[in-house]
Amino acid sequence: MSIGKIGVLFLEERLAGSERRFELRKRTQMAHEQLDAAVGNFNTLEEYRRYLTGLSRFRAAMDESLESVVWPNGWSWRPTAVARSLDSDAIDLNLPAKRQTSYDIDLADDSVLLGALYVLEGSTLGARVLRQRAAALGLDQAFGARHLAVMSKDIAQWQSFLILLDESPDFDIDRAAASANSVFALALQCFESEFLVVQ
User: Which of 3, 22, 58, 126 has the fewest Cβ atoms nearer than 10 Å?
Assistant: First the structure.
């Protein structure tokens, strides 16, 4: 079982139900499984460095896209930004500068935005498990695993997102699912890229 699935199962029963969340999960299952397989497990520092390189490229592209979003009226919630902590982790582990990756989907539509955020915030569910694996490699919130500390610090962030997802008016599940699948595809591209050669 992949680390992503472990994280989801670990917290699944503790979270409030969300019909839209379950529908998005069903429609993105294949893409999610492909990404889990590409990420794999990190049992060595070298495997962790590969994971960190891929995630850094992915989150830098997504965080940059989110910086230009005009947030819908009434949204007090904001996503968890981790690009900066990932940069610090990369410096700790002497990783080369990341190649720039772009995400060219317009996030102005609420349903498209929610689909993208579903992927990003959903990744925080597995962060606690990943943090334990990182700790076994000697990495923590002060060195090499800052981003996992940020992602796992507040489960209420995910619960707040689910409320936003369920209460958003004029929600279109088709647009949201298409957006979520495109974000998974971007992440897969970042993890599988031939340029992810860690030296």
Answer: 22
